[in-house]
Amino acid sequence: MILCGTSHALFDCPPLPPHVPINVTDLHPNDIKVVMALGDSITAGFGIMGTQGDMNEFRGLSWDIGGDQNATTLANFLRFYTPDIQGFSLGEHVAEICYGKLCPPFQYHPTLDVLDAAQSGAMVSDLVTHEMDYLVTMLKANKAINFEEDWKVLTILIGANDLCASCTFLDKKFLDPDEFEAHLSTVLEEVRNNIPRVFVNLVEMFNLSQVYDLSLKTPRCAEIHRDLYIECDCIFGPGAVKNRIAVDMYVQEYNARSRGLAAYYQAFGDPNFTVVAQPFASNTALKDQPTDILSTLDCFHPSLIAHEALATGLWNNMLTPAAMKKTVMNITDTPICPTADTLLYTY
Predict the structure, then answer these.
(1) pLDDT, tens only, 278-304
(2) Catalytic residues
(3) Comparing C-alpha atoms, which of 38, 253, 260, 34 is closest to residue 128?
């Protein structure tokens, strides 16, 4: 593997020779024909353009599935090798809000969202009850996709809203790691049983309390979180010191459960389905990052710079064996150029 000598806005690596995979453990980057995503506001692209973007979701710039021209995203990295890849999201639109049981139907914008099923505010339970229905329906409706034969990448990042909401309602406790794992396992089984030929990325979270620490570096962000802490009450709300400690503990537990599920499915040995835990951000120290990785809209969601770093981190992790995967994300990282021997590594 070599590094692309390009900026985040460009991706100019050598072409790859044609390849026909034997099974899911033999996938090369140019074998992927479809990109898909499940998740929350980060994957929905909320707040990417900060105060310039109002309350919109910029799905075409979303780190894993955005397909806007010149956007630094996983979808566009894959699209470099497969120009007719399907599923990437486009453009922007008003936020689609799904918050626990408050999840209005029919709010998707299919021509823009395409196979980005993420919803702002979504919790892990919403992936099964809401997002999967949309994803499978759209997959089957797309005539450019060979549903049975095309190899697909599905990226899942979820859990932050389950933790942030725990302090918003007095009768709610932190979602137990067993419950988190049970919901996530149900989602993965739904994918395995309903969508053929899928490589799943389970993206691990970093310690969420660090957003609070980073926001204190700018007076405007500190003021926003004093006045509008409900966005993540457990991190920014009054008396949240103990809650921040608990949130980080749960983040690590959730990550451990993601790794356990990935190990289970890899050991299961399904030739057409696998799950890989991607830890590229799990040990990131936000104090070492510039404050402009936070959206100027709310000083909480990731900015465009952060989305570009997330995209590069995920891409590089996918092309790196498990023992060598990075666990620290940095905005200066550059995307790896795969060679003819580079796999989408499952172990």
Answers:
(1) 999 999 999 889 999 999 999 999 999
(2) 41, 162, 301
(3) 38
- Alpha-carbon distance of 256 to 254, in angstroms, equals 5
User: Which DSSP symbol is given to 176?
Assistant: P
Is the pLDDT at 1 greater than 50? The verdict is: no
Find all residues with CB under 8 Å of 304, minimum gap 6, and list them: 48, 49, 61
Give the whole-angstrom CA distance, residue 174 versus residue 100: 14
Q: How many other CB atoms are found less than 10 A from the CB of residue 144? A: 11
Instruction: State what percent of residues in the chain have pLDDT above 70.
Output: 96
Identify the helix (H) or strand (E) that includes residue 75: helix 74-81
Q: Which two tokens stand for residue 332?
A: 């200066």
Which residue is listed with tokens 């690596």? 13
List pLDDT tens digits, range 14-59: 999 999 999 999 999 999 999 999 999 999 999 999 988 788 999 9
- Spatial distance between the Cα atoms of 344 and 347, rounded to a whole number of angstroms: 9
**Cα separation of 205 and 254, whole Å?**
8
Give start and end residues of each alpha helix (H) in the chain: 41-44, 74-81, 110-113, 124-126, 132-141, 160-164, 177-194, 209-215, 219-227, 233-236, 241-268, 304-318
| The pLDDT of residue 200 | 98
Phi and psi (nearest 5°) for 173?
A: -105, 170
Question: How would residue 231 be classed by pLDDT, with cut points 50, 70 and 90?
Answer: confident
CATH number, domain with residue 214 = 3.40.50.1110
User: How many C-beta neighbours within 10 Å does residue 57 have?
Assistant: 30
How far is Cα 160 from Cα 126, in angstroms, rounded to an integer? Answer: 13
Where is 113: in which H helix or E strand?
Answer: helix 110-113
Is position 346 within any domain? no
Do the domain assignments include residue 309?
yes
Domains of the chain: total: 1
Range of the domain at 207: 29-337
